Amino acid sequence: MQHACTAPGSRCTPIVLSLVRESRIRCWSHIDERCAGFFALGAAKASGTPVAVTCTSGTAAANLAPAVIEARHARVPLIVLTADRPPELREVGAGQTIDQLKLYGEAVKWFFEVDLPDATAERLRFIRTLACRAYLTALGGPAGPVHLNFPLRDPLVLDGELPEDRTARANDHPYIIREPPADPPPGAGPGPHPSGRLLIVAGADAPQPRELAAYAAKNGIPLLADPLSGARRNAAAVTHYDLMLRDADFIAQRRPDFIFRVGDLPTSKPLRAWLASLPDVPQIASDPYGTWHDPDAVVAMRLRGRLPQPEGLDVEPGWLDSWRAADESAAAAIDRQLGEELSEPLIARRLVEWVPPGTTLFVASSMPIRDVESFLPAREDDLRVLANRGANWIDGTVSSAFGVAAAGGGPVVLLIGDVALAHDIGGLLAARRLGLALTIVLLNNDGGGIFHFLPVAGEKDAFEDHVATPHGLQFRQMAELYGCGYERPENLETLGAAVERSLQSEVTTIIEVRTDREQNLALHRRVAQAVTDEISANRGSTQT
Ligand SMILES: Cc1ncc(C[n+]2csc(CCOP(=O)(O)OP(=O)(O)O)c2C)c(N)n1
């Protein structure tokens, strides 16, 4: 384990001291447990290895729940170490005591109530084994959170010498080494032998996305890849499916013969609706993590391993070309409609032009993730796109992005709306306290712009105050309060320059772009209409 997060308190003192004094673990200190949980989540998501988070007893531990739930849904290895009162102080009116047993319910892969171990050789062997087991459980199968609850009795700091620990393995070797799980053989089982109009849909955590994209390109199979899949690349990538699949005629002409679904389902509603409308088309999900992403109950075959990639498939000639031609028409229509004026979709489309290879783009839920899916072009470089799309909420986004930055591995740019930023405003403490540099591109439309797309927008008496929730926050002042740099570009050029400056800077910078919710809705509608018009106009050339 390389990273751990702490939050202050008394009862957790022994755990905090143990983590801080272990030179091989980098400890990140947080004030708010909710932030600590999401920070750990981000670091674990980015590194792919378990990260521990500890806190004191009571509601402190309850504040970790949102991150634990997200970790479960997004398969992120998190090790939660909560401090608790010893048995004699439970249910007797002692302060700061709640029932912490199975506090996170089914959201954790494993709960274990640790006893009050003495520092004898047997107990140390037990605790070492427990630590290894927690680590391996968090990492194995589908990864996820585990919870160890530690009753701790006064004194909470050592009042004497510890006996010599003779249980460590030589040369700092782990106490237990586990054989890495064998990669499931590609295409375990007989596998289908499809032909005709084949299609691949790739979502978050698609295994080996580059290989998948190369395979699709080589075999002429259209690849509808969510940016979170890492597979939106190469010649078969169809980027604008979210807009194209709103056109009934387009859909009518593109009934596939086989659909391969890899990784999680993409966010796009039109894509989901289209897949749901094709129960008669064999849909085959490759499912290496044992997850079950099929809300419409249309998947006919589940493959345990990766998608088999047989060569020499009999794919219908012209099938990929027709998708690619429509995709290019859509791109042209989008670019014409968006022009150069700053808008939320334009930023989702162009932001990556200013970031160096190896950057991670962390995208908040609500419109940012949707706009990135709809508008981010295919890229051949190693841009990584991450998001908290396990449970799809907006909480903890800032902290998660800082956690990604803490795990190292290149610059991190966070694209986020104002409500999501306000929700995790405390996460900004990581900028100065932990010395982490993030580039935060803030799309400030003073409220939840997404709700304008929903029928509730018509309920005028309640909509603005209770759904859109404008707040009027002055983010310049907020940046100052949290020791962040601040820029407010007014056009595309100055935005690009601000992003590039921020990426060179050693401090976190908030780059605020003001937008308008009503205008954003209107622009999205215009773009969608323009794509439909363009595809229809080019129908002759794109027909299959
Ligand atoms: C923890 C949590 N509470 C409530 C919601 C419901 N919700 C969905 S989107 C949204 C508004 C987000 O607004 P903002 O971040 O400004 O993005 P925009 O909609 O403007 O793109 C809310 C409150 C949620 N997703 N997560």
Structure in words:
- This protein has 544 residues and is α/β, with parallel strands linked by helices.
- The chain contains 20 helices and 20 strands.
- The strands form four sheets. It has a six-stranded parallel beta sheet, sandwiched between helices.
- Strand 1 (3-6), helix 1 (13-20) and strand 2 form a beta-alpha-beta unit.
- Thiamine diphosphate is lined by residues 364-368, 393-395, 417-420, 445, 448-450.
Q: How helix-rich are the residues, as a percent range?
A: 25-40%
Give the helix tally. Answer: 20
The helix-and-strand class reads alpha/beta
Q: Compute the CA-based radius of gyration.
A: 25 Å
Low-pLDDT runs of 5+ residues are none
Shape: globular
- The mean pLDDT is 93
| End-to-end separation | 53 Å
Bound molecules: thiamine diphosphate
Could you tell me the number of beta strands? 20
